[in-house]
Amino acid sequence: MLYVEDGNALTSAGLSAGIDLCLHLVRTDHGAAVANAAARLMVAAPVRPGGPAQFIETPLPPETGTSLAATRAWALERLHEPLTRASLAAHASTSVRTLARRFHAETGLSPLQWLLHQRLGRAQELLEATDLPLDQVARLSGLATTDSLRKHLSRRTGLTPSAYRAAFTRRAGRSGAALP
Hints:
This is GlxA family transcriptional regulator. Pfam families: HTH_18 (PF12833). A hairpin with a 2-residue loop joins strand 1 (about 5) and strand 2. The protein has a domain at about 70-110. The chain has nine helices and two strands. By secondary structure, it is mainly α.
């Protein structure tokens, strides 16, 4: 047990358990969204289900004059669609090879790796903020199937989609509305 709650008395042992307890208090007083944001700022799991998987956002790199920022923004609006290196290259008006080189220089990832990271981020947002069924979360995030969502999310966080949703929404209400 990470912390103990007995009425108005709460206690924890150790630094990480103290963080867990603080996040529990924030979640109880202000809801899951605020606690999740605080956990991300601290690079901590919002609720540790037995393993210390980290839940951090991957920020976009800063824009430069020759940046692929417009192509990344275009792709972010179409995560639910099938996107390929060729479609990304066509949008950037460049060859697939040049796209790959520039993408790696700007993001440290290949275009398809970056796309997977963004799709997983979208899936995590949907799991945190909605009650949508897992097949809809998979489809809206561009991961296509529940199996694909489960495989990639488990690899990234160590949690199944259901366990991830439970960890991020414990003790707070959720909205059934889909995110844009």
